[in-house]
Amino acid sequence: MKNFKLLFSVAVAAALFGCSSMEISDEEAYNENLPADFSCAEYMAIHPALRNLQIKDYVKEQNDAFETASGDAFKELKSADSAAFDANAETLKSLYLDPYIGGYTEEEWTSDMSDGERDSLIFNTVDHPLTRTVVDSSATPVAIYKLTIGTWDISTKSYTAIGAIEVDAEGVVTKVSGNDENDVLKEFDIGGKISINRQGTKDRKDTVSVDTVKVPTKGGIPVDKMKKLRSFNLFGTTEDLAALQAVPLDTFAISYQFVLFGKLHGWAYRPCTESEAAKDPVVPEYPATALYCDDNGKTKEID
Description:
Elements: H1 4-15, H2 24-32, H3 40-46, H4 49-70, H5 74-87, H6 89-97, H7 106-113, E1 116-137, E2 150-153, E3 158-161, E4 164-167, E5 173-179, E6 185-188, E7 194-217, H8 223-230, H9 240-245, H10 251-262, H11 274-277, E8 291-295, E9 298-302
Antiparallel strand pairs: 1-7, 2-3, 4-5, 5-6, 8-9
């Protein structure tokens, strides 16, 4: 089915030339390729996309003509029309439920419009104050290889003290203890040559866990479904539903699609009878050599 869009477009484009443009032999061949019990209405009901495409093409043509006729005022008129379309709840519901436009069910409408809950992620964080110390030294400290005041354990989210700095009232460092080159804790002789000229704290946030909680939500048409409905908005009218339902139905294009594409690809063209519905579902091969019916979305072979 990967070439469906291309082949379907070709089928409809060819059909739009109309039956009158066909040679007598072509028309006879076309009629012979339709099953005797073929019904355009039944085929369209099983494959609503056929009618959906006709309506969508009509909307595009009308909106393009509206844009041309509106000139410089088009953007403003389109904005006002779009706002009115979005605000018309009655029309939106009708389009939502129309099998050839929205194609959604009453159950889906009720579910979408009902207030409910959705999952939301909550990030739990903890603040860790860090001491920031700037050391001003006028001479190289004596015999200090490495000075570690503390270590941060990420698993326990805590600090472990390893050394210390002591200062007098004037800010002069009087004692330093830390690790030597062998990572052994010792006290260093700093000779009063180091003083602290500034110190402060800096907060750091570490995320430690993520929880999922239920958040109340207000019902409404989901974004993806609303986008689909907006593609059927006819500019320049507030009677969108009536205008869309009045779009001429090209039955020839739909039946010709079956002859040119649907039949070869094993598309079901009518509902199954009771005996046909009792059969096992099948996946038609291409090109199909049999005819098929529809059993609530399952394809069954017709004897």
